[in-house]
Structures are given as C-alpha cells and as structure tokens.
Write a structure and sequence with these properties.
about 240 residues, 13 helices, about 0% strand
Length: about 240
Amino acid sequence: MNAGERALQAVPGRIWAALLCALALHLGVQTLRPAPAAEAADLPPPPSAQTLRAASLGEPAALARLAMLYLQAFDLGAGNTLPYRQLDYVRLEQWLRAILDTDPRSQYPLFTAARIYAEVDDAAKSRRMLEFVHQAYLKDPNRRWPTLAHATLLARHRLRDMPLARRYAADLQRLTTDPAAPLWATQMEIFILEDMDELEAAKIVLGGLLAAGRISDPQERRFLQERLEALERRLASKP
C-alpha cells in the first residue's frame, strides 16, 4: 500500500459522506446548466480558512487534503478548459493560502506551489509561487525549510535571479535551526555569493558562520574551513 492510499484511508467516513453529498449536488446542478463557454471556465474563488475549518467536522487535515486534490484536479474537470498554467495565479495563491491556514502542519500546499505551480514558463507566475513559499517559511522555518530550499534553487537556476535566490538562501541560513537540515540547504548563500563574484561577502558570511559555533559536525566544519581558505586564496589572487 502506498502513501497516497494510506492517506485516503485515513480520511474519516463522515468527511467522505460530506464530500459525496457535495459532489452529487454539484453534478446535479451541472446537468441542468448549458455547456459553459470555453473562456468562462476558471478556478472559482476559494472559501476562507474559517469556512473550511467549520466544514471539516473537526478534521481540518482531512478536509485540507481533499481541497488540495480538488485544486490539483481542477484543470481536468469537464467544464474547465484552462490548464493550471493559465489559471489566475492570484486566485490560485488564495486557494493555497486558505488550505495551508486550514492545516498549517501540512506540507502539501507548499510542495505543489514549489514543485508544480512555480515550475511554469511564466516568470511572474513563478515568482508569485516562490514568494508564497517564502512567506509561509517565515512562519515555521524548521518545518518548511525543504520547500524554500527548492524555491531557492528555482530562483537561482530557472529564473536566474541571483539577488532573489540570495535573499531566500540568507533566510534559510539565518532561521533554520533544524539539525536534520542538510548543509547544502542552509549554506546556499555562500555558493550564490561566489556565483555573483561577491567573494568578500561570501568570506564574511562563511567566517561568521564558523565563528558562531553553529556547525558542530567536524566534517562539516572542515569542509567550510576549506571553503573559507579557498575564498581567501581567490581574493588574494585578484588584482
């Protein structure tokens, strides 16, 4: 049994009953309506987080999962001809925010924002999703650092926006204290500064990190010390 099957089996029966009733009502209404014009099909406004929690019957996590399934499947609906890449991203963000507020412990909305909706060939829409992930990260850094780390990589490699990538990486380094966070995720600012040829700034950040004593693993400290020495050699060789 995979994780998706376990997640669906964990949804209480009364939630499924409410969903089926809502679905039946929706289908009944749709059969009485004329076929929608292609340009009219779009993502509807989201319910508020308060409404979702009130409708969850005490199971906000389960309802948040169902709302995410609806959101992701929306572009496959018979009455919708617009794929998610063409959706109104302001409204899409509102949906993701409402679902995340309904179940703040869930990683699902942030994962889809960073891994699906941000990876579109539209820089403005991608930036909106990355900033949504960043703002959510600031509220719970030690739980949400993985999605901001991915957002940083997207800003660096897909958007090629080094200042934006550095801003995200700086917050990852400053706010993430989870010991499970890998070195590559929390020290990206140093490598981004090197890519920007900001060697002096990279040296200051790296030296401050070592001096602060936050790195306890001997191998990690040795690696960072070697990076610092390499930076110093590069600076010494510059005219």
